[in-house]
Description:
Low-confidence stretches: 189-206
Number of domains: 2
Largest sheet: 4 strands, mixed
Radius of gyration: 25 Å
Helix content: 55-70%
Shape: elongated
Number of strands: 8
Distance between the termini: 24 Å
Order of helices and strands: HHEEEHEHEHEHHHHHHHEEHH
Number of helices: 14
Amino acid sequence: MRKLFVxxxxxLLVSFRNRQxxxxxxxxxxxxxxxxxxAFQEGAPGNSTIPIGLVNLDGGLPEGVSLQGVxxxxxxxxxxxxxxxxxxxxxxxxxxxxxxxxxxxxxxxQDARTELEKQDIHALLVIPESFSLAMVSAMQQAFPxxxxxxxxxxxxxxxxxxxxxxxxxxIATTVVEQVLKDFVKFGQIEAKxxxxxxxxxxxxxGLTAFDLIVxxxxxxxxxxxxxxxxxxxxxxxxxxxLDRLRKTKMKGYHYLGAIILAQISLAFxxxxxxxxxxxxxxxPITKSIGYAFIVALLMALAVSGIGIIAGGLTENxxxxxxxxxxxxxPMAFLAGSFFLVPNPTFFDVGWFRLRIFDFxxxxxxxxxxxxxxxxxxxxxxxPFEFAMLLxxxxxxxxxxxxxxxxxxxxxx
Length: 412
């Protein structure tokens, strides 16, 4: 353990003594926080009502089919879609009690998309024809003993259209996604029909554009450690570090373990620094920030693995560091760290949907932080994102260790 600690301490100090590593790990992400914080201060877009179009194509429940609500009322027709829109319409910012959305209904998609293109509305919500049927299907999955005659099983998707370069559309996407997720969740078995309780999360947060960006900036900071891991892993080889370690009877796993532990520690140092800087520009500090350390732990493992892979594929420290940057920066953008990007579906069966960029560790990491930090949720509310991040971390770390050991440890 003492040998491991000595190497760990040396690896951690590299990130602070090396000016370039310190700049990209600490200073550069803080500059981004300052730039985005100043750009989206209070009064900037993101804290005013968002004009949003609505096309409700819901066909409702079949004629003669009704359900009993919690209050004893009969639920029929387009209750589900109308209730969903009512909830979205009632959401308000905490700071000024301004409604988040101002809905404008359209009879057809063509007129709605025309106004969307002219930016008369900043987003278009399309509720599909089978929405009510899909809601009943969700209830039957939650309560297997519930049987309804004449109601076919259905799966569907609510569509939100808009320009992803618009801040208001990014805000609308986050809010609608979370409300819809809560709307189709019926809780435990004893829960009653279509009762919905918004637990003061989105409507009490006062979401701003900067709030949406902060989780991505945190992950961006951890990704910036890629270059350091890649460069150090190669420079230690070229400078004969492993040969000298063998003479002290240290093992290769001591060295690799020290790199991984140093990256975990560095990520744990970056987290409070980034959130403190963000708080200076109005980002709310809540207990949910504690979950960021779990995300940082898994991201540090993934970054270590990817960095070691980069080191294993190059011959010198400069090339390894450059390759680390080439991998890390695009990954941050594709994960939606700064703005939402299209994430094509890779696999879609029923309720399970796997997207292409979910295989990048930064994508589930950013999604987890946004859900937990902005909606006062826990990691238990993000099981898919947590599982994907864990899978990505284990996968890349395993590949990295395998490549590094085969190329360097056996060669020396």
